[in-house]
Design a protein that fits this description.
The structure is a single chain. With 235 residues, this protein is mainly α. The protein has a domain of 119 residues. The chain is 45% helix and 4% strand. The protein is built from 6 helices and 3 strands; from the N terminus they run ααββαααβα. It has a 3-stranded antiparallel β-sheet with strand order 2-1-3, with helices on one face. A hairpin with a 4-residue loop joins strand 1 and strand 2. Helix 2 packs antiparallel against helix 3, helix 3 packs antiparallel against helix 4 and helix 4 packs antiparallel against helix 6. The radius of gyration is 34 Å and the shape is rod-shaped. About 9% of the residues have low confidence.
Length: 235
């Protein structure tokens, strides 16, 4: 009787449990960059480009809301110069705060929408949210200034007349508010993906077959902690 070529206590060399999933399919990407666990790299890049463009275009809506909700800075003219009507007012700071709060809200909403669009997430989508959010903030800033009160203060003062209050043009003094949208989008997207995103499948290990009844136990491998007979036992 000859011993089998493959010991029964060891799996076959080609039976790697990491190579196949529960259904026998390969979860790793194939030569074309696609696999069972998600789209290929080219598809992810296309989706990221679409997300970046749509996010940037949404900046127009942020600019309109900023122009509508930001507090106005009142100015007044005496016919020779233009002055702040309320020199101790905080309307300018309120304009910066309104832009930052709107940016945070737009970042959270855009991140949630992208997560619903593709639940697995990915680095390209996160980068697209960051780039699109920054471009959207820049577009909102310029759109709000362009659609808001006139930038020509002298002409606005002449049009209003002497002693008549008019609104100062919108101004974003704290340029750091432009980062509110991209930062909020990245944080919210990473958070919802970590909590609600799909999990990677656990590897399925093939059960080991028991040794045949009455078969000899496998010989110990060298260096496994077993030793041969001691010299004093040979006497």
């Amino acid at each position: 009787m000859t011993a089998p070529l493959t010991p029964p206590h060891q799996p076959p060399p080609n039976d790697d449990p990491w190579q196949k999933g529960p259904s026998g399919s390969t979860p790793w990407p194939g030569p074309d960059g696609t696999g069972d666990e998600g789209p290929g790299l080219r598809t992810e890049l296309v989706q990221a480009a679409v997300v970046a463009v749509l996010t940037a275009v949404a900046g127009v809506l942020l600019g309109l809301l900023w122009m509508w909700l930001a507090p106005r800075v009142p100015l007044i003219s005496d016919g020779k110069a233009v002055y702040l009507k309320d020199s101790e007012g905080e309307q300018a700071i309120g304009g910066d705060g309104t832009f930052a709060l709107l940016g945070l809200a737009f970042g959270a909403v855009s991140a949630a929408a992208v997560f619903l669009f593709r639940r697995r997430g990915g680095v390209p989508l996160v980068l697209a949210l960051a780039v699109g959010g920054l471009l959207g903030s820049l577009l909102a800033w310029r759109a709000g200034i362009w659609l808001g009160p006139s930038q020509d203060v002298v002409a606005a003062a002449k049009h209003a007349g002497k002693g008549v209050t008019f609104d100062a043009p919108l101004k974003l003094s704290a340029r750091g508010a432009l980062l509110a949208w991209p930062v909020a989008a990245m944080i919210v997207h990473l958070g919802v993906t970590a909590v609600f995103g799909p999990r990677d499948p656990e590897p399925v290990w093939a059960p080991q077959a028991p040794p045949p009844y009455g078969g000899a136990a496998p010989a110990p491998e060298p260096g496994d902690g077993t030793t041969g007979p001691r010299p004093d036992d040979r006497a």
